[in-house]
Structures are given as C-alpha cells and as structure tokens.
Write a structure and sequence with these properties.
The complex is a heterodimer of chains A (about 475) and B (about 90).
Chain A lengths: L1 H6 L1 H14 L1 H4 L8 E4 H5 L10 E6 L4 E2 L2 E2 L4 E10 L10 E3 L2 E7 L6 E12 L1 H13 L1 H13 L5 H15 L5 H9 L3 E5 L1 H10 L1 H14 L16 H9 L4 H6 L5 H32 L1 E11 L4 E2 L1 E10 L4 E10 L5 E2 L14 E11 L13 E9 L4 E11 L6 E12 L46
Helix pairs in contact in A: 5-8, 5-13, 6-7, 7-9, 9-13, 10-13, 11-13
Chain B lengths: L1 E9 L5 E8 L4 E9 L2 E9 L6 E5 L7 E4 L1 E3 L4 E2 L3 E4 L1
Antiparallel strand pairs in B: 1-2, 2-5, 3-4, 3-7, 6-9, 7-8
Classes of the chains: A alpha+beta (about 475), B mainly beta (about 90).
Chain lengths: ~475, ~90
C-alpha cells in the first residue's frame, strides 16, 4: 500500500479501499466480543441497541409499562424474557430479583429495525383480584360458560366432570377466554391467561363439590318427602342458589312445599349442601383460578440497532480551489481520530462533535470544470484536510491541495473546499472500515457485562430494513 | 316406608357415611346398605315419621379417598342418587 502512495496519489485511496475489502478481519471482526448491558428505559425513550455483541437488557419493574401503567402494579411479576420479532431461537429466561430484572437478547445485526418484545409472566396482584371477580360475576360470557359446564356434567361421573372442567378452564383462559378478556380490560398488554394449573389444583381439592352440585345435590332438592317447589332438573344452578338463599325459616320451607319438621330438616340439609357446593365451585372458579392463573404480558418496543460504527470513510467529491480557480474531482479517506463513530450521527452542530469531524487525505485526479490549461502538472494532486459530516452520506471537506505547478514546476499548496459523498455509507459498502460491534446510542456508560446465558440467537425471518 | 335418601356425606378419613332419610307416616325399620369396592356395609335404622332424619353407616373404608356411593334402603327398595364422597 505504501508503495502505491509513493508511486501515485491516485493509487493511494484505491489501495486502502482494496486492502480493507480484502481483509475481512478489519471489516467484520469475529464475533464473541464481550456483551453489553442496555437499560430498558433508554430503549423505551428511543435509544438504539448495540450490534455485534451479546446484549443484556436490564431494568426495574417500574420500567415495564403497559401504556402509562406499570405492569407491576397489577401483576406480581415472576418471569421475564426478551426477544425480537422474527427471531428463530428460543429466548433464554431472564431473572427477576426484587425490583430489578435482567434478560438476555443475544447478538444483533447492525443498522436493523428491531421489534423488541419483552414477555412478562406473573400472577394477578391482590388489588386487582376483587375487580376481576366482580367483572366475572357480571360477565354474561362467564355465566354462559358455567351453564354449559353444568349442562355437560349432568349425570356425569368423575372422568366426565374432569373433562368438562378442563374445557371450562380453556374457555376461561387462552387468548380469547372470558377471564383473559377481563384481565385485558384492566391491562391491555395481556396476551393470555393460563388457568390450567390453577384450575386443576382447585378442582382436585374440591372434586366432590364439582361432581355433585349439578347432579346429586340438585336431585336431593327434589327428593320425595322434602322436595322444594321451584327446583326442577332444568333450573339453572344460579337460580337454584338464589331460591335456596331465600329459604331461612321453617315457614319459608313450608311455603316452598315442604311440610313436617323431619322433612324440613332433610330439605334444609339438602339446601345447605347445595349452597355450600355452589359457593365452593364459584369461589374456586373465581378466587383460586384468578389468583393462581399465570398471566402473560407482551410489551412491544419498536427499536433498532445502532448504525455501523466506522473507523474511517472513503469519500468521492468535488473541490474548489479559489486561488487557481479550479474545480476538481477528489477521492479522500476520512479517518475519525476519536475512535469509531456511528454513521447515523452527524450534523454540523451536533453535540456529539467527535463523530462529526474527521482527518482526511487523498488525491485529486482531474479537472471538473473543463479547464483547458490547468495549473496542475500531470493532473494529479495530493489533498488533505478536515472533513465535517453533514449527515449519514454527505460531508464537506476543507484543507489544502499540494500540486506541482505546471508553469514554474514548483510544489505549491493551495486551500480548497468541497462537498463529498461517503461511498462507504452506501448499503453495499457500509461494512468497510466498520467496527464489528457497536455501542447502544442512549445507554453509554451503563457498563458492560458478559452474556449470562452465553447464547447466540439468529434473526430468522427478520428483514434487513435499514434505519436511515 | 322410606321415601328417599339424601345428602350422603363423609368426613374424610372416618369411613362413616351419614345421610338423611325421608319416611312416610309409617316410619321405617329396616337395613340400609352401601357397597364400596365390592364390599357391602349395612346398618339397621328405625325411624318414626317425626324423628331426626339423620342416619349413618360405618364402613372400614376410611381414607380410601373419593368413591361414588349409592345407599340402599333394603326393605323399601329405595336408593339414593349416586354421590361422590371423600371417605
């Protein structure tokens, strides 16, 4: 490469470019560098994820918000995972430690739109249970679910009741279940409520109540000698329960068609059994299921990974040399003296001024303005100076041009200014001069840590949409 | 005569099955039985029409867990509705 520079300034920039392209170690260093921790709050406020190394997201439970509401206000958070849409691997389970949580996201490609999904599991907080129970009680869907359950378990044995209970739990939970909808009305980010485990536990504890209520209990209310008027095999359990709750005194039972103290005692016993089993069933379906159900919440956060961090850029542009009145083409390598910078950064007056300025050197290889008698001998000149990035692609260069004067044969230096385009910012060339990994743009100083899971997950169907 | 047998239940682990009976004006004086795991347990019950309707059968199945039982009044030939109880 040095030989090229000595031979021809024109060759210099091309040699550098070829050398870098031929050296994949520079263009894209091997993965496996230390991971980086990113604060979730920084991502939510628009920060970008780092690329090329394992990312671990951390935060507090208060950071996890569904709309303006902290999820932890309504759920006892027990689990958390972070993933992104289109990811093909299984995200590792994160950790929740008191008010803090950590979740690994794996490695991400640079300059890519990322739909970050934080999945939270938990149980419904005590404060919310009462609200949900009230809504369950007032829910027409829930009432229908229960009636269907009672109809289907009529005259069924244990196995039939178990089967119908599972169906009832499915109709309560799942993506479109009654309980899920009610919980969603309180916390819209809820994806599903899994009631299976809780329901099974509750069901096993109170199998006799579930099994007897709609069969033996109801038949006993119609037993010869102590039949209560108004109870038929077709009477819905909720109506039977209301009717029985209204029977308090012997006179009430007599009014309901039961006569004789012994028969009233039998009827009262049957009514007590029915109401106790009804309340057991309803409490288990309500309180136990609600309190023990596992609620899944998904928080979507459109984000993107940081733009490629570049050590240098290669520009092609036009410079104007006022003193000799020439407009010339030039090719320059711009080196960022303060370390690699994000391509997306820039602007003349940006706060991140270190990402704006670059040291430049290159060659001017020809007149651009149709000058028939150029002052530059052999058409080639060395150019050097300072680059000022305007945006991702464009830059202004100022500096000096060293050339051999065609008239005097002396080596002269003239000032120039001119715009240029960073060709290494173009999609097909953007990995040239780039760092193999980059920092997140809004969480600098948050510290680095290795990926606790050590996993690398591929992006699968995620497209490579660029963030300009 | 026994008209009906209702609300059979058991305190788990006791093996004792309690139930209520409705009898007509003539009362009853007969055996009641329950069969659990192919083993039949019997108790003789004598009731007048105005007596406490409670009756019971002691079994040796305490702790056996959930069973579907039917209690039979042997002379009146009346049966309870099958009921799941935790013995």
């Amino acid at each position: 490469m040095n030989r090229c520079v000595l031979l021809s300034a024109r060759c210099a920039a091309i040699c550098v470019l070829v050398a870098v392209v031929a050296d994949p170690g520079l263009a894209s260093q091997a993965a496996g560098s230390a991971g980086q921790t990113v604060k979730y709050s920084a991502l939510v406020s628009g920060g970008k994820l780092p690329y090329g190394k394992s990312v671990t997201i951390t935060g507090t439970l208060d950071d996890l918000k569904c709309g303006s509401e902290a999820v932890s206000k309504k759920l006892n958070v027990t689990g958390i995972t972070a993933s992104y849409l289109g990811e093909s691997g299984t995200p590792p389970t994160g950790t929740v430690d008191g008010q803090n949580w950590t979740a690994s996201l794996g490695q991400l490609p640079a300059d890519t739109a990322i739909n970050l999904q934080v999945k939270i599991t938990g149980t419904i907080a005590p404060a919310l249970r009462g609200v949900i129970l009230d809504k369950l009680a007032a829910s027409g869907d829930f009432a229908r679910d229960i009636e269907v359950f009672f109809q289907m378990t009529r005259n069924e044995g244990t196995s039939g009741v178990e089967l119908e209970t599972e169906r009832l739990m499915q109709s309560l939970g799942g993506a479109s279940g009654t309980l899920t909808k009610i919980v969603q009305s309180e916390l819209p980010c809820v994806a599903a409520v899994d009631v299976t485990t809780a329901a099974t536990t509750a069901f096993r504890k109170n199998l006799d109540s579930f099994a007897n209520l709609n069969h033996a209990d109801q038949q006993d209310l119609m037993a010869e000698g102590s039949a209560i008027r108004g109870v038929t095999p077709q009477t819905p359990p909720s109506e039977v329960y209301s009717l029985l709750k209204g029977l308090k005194t012997d006179a009430d039972y007599q009014a309901a068609g039961v006569s004789g103290s012994s028969h009233i005692t039998v009827a009262r016993g049957a009514a007590g059994k029915y109401t106790a089993d009804y309340e057991t069933v309803m409490n288990n379906l309500g309180l136990t299921v609600v309190s023990e159900s596992s609620v899944g919440v998904i928080l979507d956060n459109p984000s993107s990974t940081a733009d490629l961090n570049k050590y240098a850029g290669f520009d092609v542009g036009v410079n104007y040399v006022p003193r000799i009145n020439e407009l010339r083409q030039f090719d320059m390598v711009h080196v960022y003296p303060f370390g690699p910078v994000e391509l997306g950064a820039g602007g003349l007056f940006t706060k991140d001024w270190k990402a704006t300025y670059s040291l430049a050197a290159g060659v001017s290889i020809g007149d651009f303005s149709g000058n028939a008698s150029s002052r530059i001998k052999g058409e080639n000149a060395f150019v050097y100076g300072l680059g000022i990035r305007i945006n991702k692609y464009f830059r202004v260069a100022v500096g000096g041009m060293v050339y051999r004067d065609a008239a005097s044969n002396r080596l002269l230096n003239e000032g120039f200014i001119g715009p240029s385009i960073d060709v290494t910012a173009l999609p097909g060339l953007k990995q040239i001069f780039s760092s193999s990994s980059g920092s997140s743009t809004s969480s600098k100083g948050s510290g680095s840590t290795s990926n606790p899971s050590g996993t690398t997950r591929s992006q699968g169907a995620q497209n490579g949409t660029e963030t300009k | 005569m026994v008209q009906s047998i209702v609300t059979a239940q058991s305190v788990a682990g006791s093996g004792l099955i309690t139930f209520n009976i409705n009898v007509d004006a003539g009362g009853c004086d007969e055996d009641f039985s329950v069969t659990i795991d192919n083993e039949t347990f019997t108790n003789h019950v004598k009731h007048n029409s105005n007596d406490d309707p409670a009756a019971s059968i002691q079994t040796t199945k305490g702790g056996a867990g959930e069973r579907n039982i039917v209690i039979v009044a042997r002379t009146s030939n009346k049966s309870s509705i099958p009921r799941l109880i935790n013995l």
